[in-house]
Design a protein that fits this description.
By secondary structure, the protein is mainly β. It has one helix and eleven strands. Strand 5 and strand 6 form a beta hairpin. The radius of gyration is 13 Å and the shape is globular.
Length: 121
Amino acid sequence: QVQLVESGGGLVQAGGSLRLSCAASGRSFSSYDMGWFRQAPGKERDFVATINWSGGRTYYGGSVKGRFTISRDSGKNTVYLQMDSLKHEDTAVYYCAAGVGAVTTNLYTYWGQGTQVTVSS
């Protein structure tokens, strides 16, 4: 089993920054590709970013590219999402997810509980 726990969400003013963390436990963290997704109330879940097992490949959704950065620290079994230049439309519950080869398969086996990010003007 792999358990994922997000943290770092909160309220931030537009133009500000937040860093989300996703701590993994159980199965070896380094075996998994990791992703960040977000979902606003009543809307579909959107892809935010993904990073492969080694950290050598990253991909971003078009709406966040250039503003968000995904990274991982294998020593801490943690993946991060650095969010800069936040906009009101970034407001959502952010989820981290893990899956073997998910960067190419788009299949994520494990999901965290989500953390709320609210961006106010």
